[in-house]
Amino acid sequence: MQKTLVTLLLILLSLPSFSQIDKADVEAFASEFVKKETQFSKDEVMAILNQAEYQSEIIEKITRPAEGTMTWERYRKIFIKQGRIDAGVAFYKTHKTALEKVSADTGVPAEIILGIIGVETYFGKIKGSYKVLDALYTLGFGYPKRAKFFKSELGKFLILSKLENLEATEILGSYAGAMGYSQFMPSSYIAYAKSFEENGTRDLMESPEDAIASVANYLKVHRWKKGQPITSKAEMTRKITGLRKQSTKPKNKVSDYTAIGFKPAENLNADLPATMLIFDKDGNTEHWFGLYNFYVITRYNRSHLYAMAVYQLAEEIKKSI
User: Which N-terminal stretch is annotated as signal sequence (predicted)?
Assistant: First the structure.
């Protein structure tokens, strides 16, 4: 008898948990949403939400993101590989016209656009396998820590699906609800997505050219500084200890760090805003000057590991073009 109860308990625990979602909370969300977005009816919204499924593995994944658990050494090995570099070169050759035009129009280097698309989706090969609706539903109603944010993104996703004529119940993306070549969250899709073609639709799921235009627009709006450097490896001219972790947003100047014994690998304007980035690699500590454009890349993803992976992948592709 006891064995049977244990078996039954194990079976129940293995089934998807619907008790994690408070249906009254879903109803309240729909009611509040349609008050603000009068182009929707509550029945319409509930018809979509009733097709969403709670995915417990999404909760597991968001509680241990790679950027929060990996060393730079491990993180770098995922993205700075010859296969991904070669894919970036091939992507550049195929979409050279779009990349060069967008770069000229925005001031964002083509290799940085490539670096972001390469890190985000391996140039469109890995766009995500979760239904965006399921992801935002699970996180909005089953993850109290960030419920407000993901409910907001769920609302934006409903709006986006109508704006861009997307099938809300079918679009695939990441476990956090990011979509397409550029992995935009719904709010970013609405705010920053652009069509490469004038007066065209904004198709980040299927159009590499639209993704190129949108990534560059995102960085431009976040104040990318045309022609300015991004980062430079720092060498110590004397032993420095006790340096605290720095903000990715530059709050000092290059000269402040050179004054205490850090030398950039290449010439940098002493007055450029800077921070000092710290990475662990091959059992050693690397220091890099983080300049304003490095900070702009972290507006895409706040991790300094992410931004450095974008930069280094971009540089490797640039060398191979």
Answer: 1-19
What's the CA gap between 250 and 209, in Å, rounded? Answer: 32
Active-site annotation holder among 44, 60, 120, 198: 120
pLDDT tens string for the chain (321 positions)?
454 444 444 434 434 444 479 999 999 999 999 999 999 999 999 999 999 999 999 999 999 877 767 889 999 999 999 999 999 999 999 999 999 999 999 999 999 999 999 999 999 999 999 999 999 999 999 999 999 999 999 999 999 999 999 999 999 999 999 999 999 999 999 999 999 998 888 999 999 999 999 999 999 999 999 999 999 999 999 988 888 888 999 999 999 999 999 999 999 999 999 999 999 877 788 999 999 999 999 999 999 999 999 999 999 999 999
Question: Residue 107 in 3-state DSSP?
Answer: coil
Task: In the chain, list all ranges with CATH 1.10.8.350.
Answer: 18-78+128-178
Residues of the chain with CATH 1.10.530.10: 81-124+190-217+305-321, 231-298
Residues 6+ apart with CB under 8 A from 136: 150, 153, 154, 157, 177, 186
- Active-site residue flag, 120: yes
Helix (H, G, I), strand (E, B) or coil at 305: helix
Give domain 81-124+190-217+305-321's CATH architecture. Answer: Orthogonal Bundle (1.10)
Q: How many residues does the chain have?
A: 321
Q: Please give the backbone phi and psi of residue 304, each rounded to the nearest 5 degrees, phi first.
A: -70, -25
Q: How far is CA 95 from CA 80, 155, 195, 217, in A?
A: 21, 33, 15, 17
Dist. CA 4–CA 158, nearest whole Å: 45
